[in-house]
UniProtKB/TrEMBL annotation:
This is Metal-sulfur cluster biosynthetic enzyme. InterPro entries: Fe-S_Maturation_MIP18, FSCA_dom_sf, MIP18-like. The lineage of its organism: Bacteria, Bacillati, Bacillota, Bacilli, Bacillales. Pfam families: FeS_assembly_P (PF01883). Residues 20-79 form the MIP18 family-like domain.
Length: 111
């Protein structure tokens, strides 16, 4: 898989997450909230998503991970990707500055 093909696949994965994985408490997708720190695809098309949550004690971590795997099911069924691993990290800590302009407007957070 070329670097260009990987980048295209990463962009498709990000689009799926943006469209389908909404933070249940905030009602905004995890991409625009700035929770996704990285998406990596290896040569075997295994996907590793590195992300954080808005708070360390977030009771919805399992729900969000499940929603991610569900959002990427079609890509797996069509053999575009294989395994999906979600790695939740706490460093760097999330803050509102990581949110996109869209998320800030949707949540009424000043720039």
């Amino acid at each position: 898989m070329s670097t260009e093909e990987k980048q295209e696949l990463i962009e498709r994965i990000e689009a799926e997450l943006e469209n389908d994985v909404i933070d249940p408490e905030l009602g905004v997708d995890i991409v625009n909230l700035g929770l996704v720190y990285g998406i990596d695809v290896d040569d075997d098309k295994n996907v590793k998503i590195t992300m954080t949550l808005t708070s360390m004690g977030c009771p919805l971590a399992g729900t969000i991970v499940s929603d991610i795997k569900t959002a990427l099911k079609d890509l797996q069924e069509f053999k575009e990707i294989n395994e999906v691993d979600v790695d939740i990290v706490w460093n760097p800590p999330w803050d509102k500055d990581k949110m996109s302009r869209y998320a800030k407007i949707a949540l009424g957070v000043p720039d």
